[in-house]
Amino acid sequence: MGLFVAFADIARVTLRQLLGRRRTLLLILLSTLPVLLAIAFRIAGVTEVDRFTRRVFDTITMIILLPLVAILFGSGAFGAEIDEGTVVYLLAKPVPRWIVVAAKAFSAVAVAILLTGGSAALAGIIDMFPAGSDGVSATLAQVVAMVVGSACYVSLFLALSLFTRRALVIGIGYMLVWEGALSSLLAGIANLSIRQYALGAATAIYKLPNQESRLSAETSFILAGVLVVVALVVATWKLMRFELPGGGD
Amino acid sequence: MTPEFVPSTTGPTAPDAPTSPAPVPAIELAHAARWYGNVVAVNDVSFSLGAGVTGLLGPNGAGKTTLLHMLAGFLAPSAGDVRILGRSPHRDPSVYRQIGLVPEREAVYPFLTGLDYVKFNARLQGLPDPDRAARAAIAQVGLEDAMDRQIGGYSKGMRQRVKVAGSLVHNPQVLLLDEPFNGMDPRQRIAMMDLLGRLADEGRTILFSSHILEEVERVGTEILVLVAGRLAASGDFRAIRALMTDRPHNITIRSSDDRRLATTLMADQAVFAVELTQSGLCVQTSQLGAFRRLVAGASRAAGVHLLEVVPADESLESVFDYLVRR
Known about the structure:
The complex is a heterodimer. Chain A has helices at residues 2-19, 22-44, 49-84, 87-91, 97-127, 133-161, 167-185, 194-202, 217-240. Chain A has one domain (2-240). Chain A has nine helices and no strands. Chain B is α/β, with parallel strands linked by helices. Helices cover 34% and strands 27% of the residues of chain B. Chain B has helices at 64-71, 114-124, 130-140, 156-168, 186-201, 213-219, 237-246, 258-266, 288-302, 316-325; strands at residues 4-5, 27-36, 39-49, 52-57, 79-84, 99-102, 174-178, 205-210, 222-227, 230-236, 249-255, 271-277, 280-285, 306-311. In chain B, the strands form three sheets. Chain B has a seven-stranded mixed beta sheet with strand order 1-10-9-4-8-7-6, sandwiched between helices. Chain B has a four-stranded antiparallel beta sheet with strand order 12-13-11-14, covered by helices on one side. In chain B, strands 3-2-5 form a three-stranded antiparallel beta sheet, with helices on one face. In chain B, helix 8 packs across helix 9 (288-302). The A-B interface holds A 2, 5-6, 9-10, 13, 16-17, 20, 84-86, 88-97, 240-249 and B 34, 36, 41-42, 58, 60-66, 69, 72, 74-76, 91, 93-97, 99, 101, 103-105, 107-109, 111-112, 120-121, 123-126, 166-167, 178-179, 209, 211.
């Protein structure tokens, strides 16, 4: 009971921290973009799974919205507390560090899923549901991709934020260079690409058109699971050794 | 450096001092040091504290925060040993059931109300009735009127008080406070000092840092003076204060005839050096009060007009420098 109370309290405070920041408003605006495009497509009478996936999901939701939202929330879950100095109020408590990490990760993943998964679901309902059962499956598959991608990005960059204050910059670099440029050149990178885990997991529901998912659904779920667990274990390990600076005094 | 040491049964004691078989000290440092690369922040510091209030005094950059972070378990000592209630605080979250910590940084979750923040602390401490404990802690710091307002709208002093309430809510045996009086107005300061005194009277061990001599004077009779990472002095405040008072003072005087005034001043016992400089007379005296009276009479006797009398070394740093050099 005590641990659950601590988890819930830390998660609640983290949620308020993440949602109360100005950049969250920008992310909310960004997450409405696929929905607005879906509305425009619907008005124009284009309700094909193939076209919507290619023009909106591939180019905006998967490549920009998901990594940006999840990296910002993942790196910000601890990063903001460390920068502002409030992390001391969590650490000076008899709470197991894994609870602190789990609560932070839970909140950041939840907010990331709310924005990315919510955006994908709403856009799919608007523009792909009219295409019939394929549209419904494609929407569900895209939501699954958002869920798996959010969990992976958040966990990885939450852990990284405990090692460096530049986790966000590294995250943007990872998103642009590793997953953007290098993954199209080197096929082997698929095993180390969160984007590929997310797309691979989506195929468990539906084979999204034009997607180059290089991993099977099973492999994707396993690799994503391993990544999340390892990242959170490493974050706990680091938090147990976390040191506050001495300050000017 | 010759640290002043006044043995005390409740205040700071050197670890090698003869002690009776007493219970484990609440706070104990043995040759503790902490360095960052080539920079030594805390250097070979040893002391132990029992119940009572102790002031950790030192100029900015002396290593006070580093020392408090080591005691709070947030920094591992690079050398030596740090113990709270007989246990190493580093990597042992359970020790926080017995420690309350008020950090120097002002930041507190701005979106929480004062009551919510203290309840948050109470719940993370696993208290059976967080609401009751939080209200009691808030009453202790006198913040009842503002407890339902968001902390973001608090003044600096109110934030300090709510931080103290959060650190007190679980009734800790050891309270560590880093510059707790920062941002408080004089009335709040006195109230907080009285609170620390009451908490100490209940048998707690309280260590607070400050760079303001007068703050320490009112709260704690025992002090630790940290200068450049080293323990320059420890013990009874009055003894150390006397050392500080008796030290030579440098005073710069500008007058209508510095040379004539210098001759008159040199005749007095309170003055033991006078130097004529471009900017005026530099006078060294060991009795500041007597000199103030003397200079007025001497200038009248010499028929000299005083234009300016300025103490040259009244900064806290110079006081600490004197203690270190002594």
